[in-house]
Amino acid sequence: MAIDLWRTRPYTAYNAPLRQWVDRVFDDAFARETPNTSGSAGFQSLPVNVWETPEGYQAALLAPGLDEQSINVTVHDDTLAIEGELTFNVPEGGKPIWQEFGPSKFRRSLRLGSAVDPGRVEAMFKNGLLLVTMPKAEHAKPRQIQVQVGGTTPAAATSGANGSSKK
Predict the structure, then answer these.
(1) What pLDDT is attached to residue 8?
(2) Residue 23 — φ and ψ, nearest 5°?
(3) Residue 3: inside a domain
(4) Structural domain tally of the chain?
(5) Residue 116 lies in a domain
(6) Average pLDDT of span 43-54
(7) Is the separation of the CB atoms in 74 and 134 below 8 Å?
(8) 33 by DSSP, 3-state: which?
(9) Are 134 and 119 in contact (CB under 8 A)?
(10) Residue-number span of the structural domain to which 116 is assigned
(11) CA dihedral 98, 99, 100, 105 (to 10 degrees)
(12) CATH at residue 76
């Protein structure tokens, strides 16, 4: 359904028909029809924020109106995948007079950059916001390497300090 933007524009008599025609062409080209829930073309995406800490990653997704039972969070190596479904229907006996959303599915997949420990991933859904905490896998965390200081290297210790062996 198109939004009537022409009401907010000042009326000018000389270009009103042309502007209305351009608006109609634009609306017809980009306006969504009723949501398609019977295939991958009907999948929507959710807005997401992701941030990294030294311990792992955190993600926040806006998901108002979703049934928490339909949300599926999956982590594999460095990829987070989230799927779910919005199941809103017009009540029995109701007749829609304006409808900008309907039942739809969503899917979002993000590559994080480092492997995540899947056994420690936590997801919490509260007030339409899905928060996912993903600790990094131990092998993916940066490690401080202790630099050893010694008088000689192992090769120099066997052959002498100047590189020649004693006779």
Answers:
(1) 45
(2) -60, -45
(3) no
(4) 1
(5) yes
(6) 84
(7) no
(8) coil
(9) no
(10) 36-90+99-140
(11) 180
(12) 2.60.40.790
